[in-house]
Amino acid sequence: MNEAQILDALRASLWAGVWIASPLLLTALVVGVIVGLLQALTSVQELTLTFVPKLIAMLIAFLLCSSFAARLLLALFDNRILPLIAGA
C-alpha cells in the first residue's frame, strides 16, 4: 500500500462525508431561513421557535436519508477500504 492509495481512500472518505452531511445541512439551512423570515415578519423572537422546527425537520431528513448514507458507506467500505486491507 503506497501513499497514492491512502490519499485516494482518504479523498473518497471525505467526499462520502460531504455527501452524507449535505442533506442534513441543507435541511437546517432552509428551515432556518424560513423560520427566520417568519420571525422577522411577525416580530416574534422566541428561542424555541427556531430550535424545534429545525430539530423536527432534521430528524425527518435523517430518517429519509439514512438508507442512502448506509448504502454509500457500505459501497465505500466494499470498493475502497476492503481492497486496501486485503492487499496489505
Characteristics:
0% strand; mainly alpha; 88 residues
Structure explained in plain terms:
The protein has 88 residues and is mainly α. The chain has one domain (3-87). 92% of the residues lie in helices and 0% in strands. It contains 2 helices and no strands. α1 (3-42) runs antiparallel to α2. The protein is elongated. It starts with a helix and ends with a helix. The mean pLDDT is 92. This is Flagellar biosynthetic protein FliQ. It comes from Amphiplicatus metriothermophilus. Belongs to the FliQ/MopD/SpaQ family.
Strand portion = under 5%
Q: How many individual helices?
A: 2
User: What general outline do the C-alpha atoms trace?
Assistant: elongated
Distance between the termini: 6 Å
Structural class: mainly alpha
Report the major sheet. none
The ordered H/E elements are: HH
Return the average pLDDT rounded to an integer.
92
Oligomer: single chain
Q: Quick one: how many beta strands?
A: 0
| Helix percent band | over 70%
Which parts are unreliable, with pLDDT below 50 for 5 consecutive residues or more? none
- Rg computed from alpha carbons, rounded to a whole number of angstroms: 19 Å
Number of domain modules: 1
GO cellular component, one term: plasma membrane
Transmembrane segments: 12-35, 55-77
Pfam family, one: Bac_export_3
Subcellular location: Cell membrane
